Amino acid sequence: MVKYISLLIIGFILGSIPFGIIIARAKGINLKEVGSRNIGATNVLRSLGKWPAALTLLGDILKGTLAVAIGRHFGMSSVYEGLIGISAILGHNFSMFLGFKGGKGVATSLGVLAIYTPQVAALSILIWLVVVIATKYSSLGAIVSFAILPLNMMLFDPNDKGKMYIAILITILILLRHNDNILRLVKGTERKIGQQK
Predict the structure, then answer these.
(1) Most buried pick, 4, 59, 132, 170, via CB within 10 A?
(2) pLDDT in tens, 86-134
(3) Which long-range contacts does 148-157 make (Cβ < 8 Å, 24+ apart)?
(4) pTM to 2 decimals?
(5) 3-state SS string over 145-180?
(6) What is the C-alpha to C-alpha distance for residues 8 and 145, in angstroms, rounded to an integer?
């Protein structure tokens, strides 16, 4: 039990590392005061440009991947690997380094999926890209790709029911964190990629 709890805590700490904030601060910018005030790669792109955004994206992905990899190293079951990954997502969303505030968890969720179920992760990224290219809304890409994540899991990784439960939990987390984006999309006030105001 101590090992299980310790791995969940490690996952949360990893997820809490705010790469966007760190990279922006190195540029002399407080990310919480510019753009959408979100700590993720989309706001870094809007506020600092492509390379800082790419570094933020990579960091946020890798902390989800690393959390699951640590669970796998210690021989955890697939369900517990997924729970450690979800702990990392929660760490990103409610960072202990930012007063338990944080981002939307998209990149970290993709990082979790990349090692947890690579085929489904690739499909989720493809769906996100198609929606974003077609609409220029990063949030809509995330909403669509994660809304159908359980379906993709059922179709492409059907042999482990535990993974389906983890996929459903990730979907719920993503949709809850995008509630404001959904409302803005409905109202037509959501900002597109590259749009400043």
Answers:
(1) 170
(2) 999 999 999 999 999 999 999 999 999 999 999 999 999 999 999 999 9
(3) 149/113, 149/120, 149/124, 152/120, 152/123, 152/124, 153/117, 153/120, 156/117, 156/119, 156/120, 156/123, 157/117, 157/119, 157/120
(4) 0.93
(5) HHHCHHHHHHHHCCCCHHHHHHHHHHHHHHHHHCHH
(6) 26
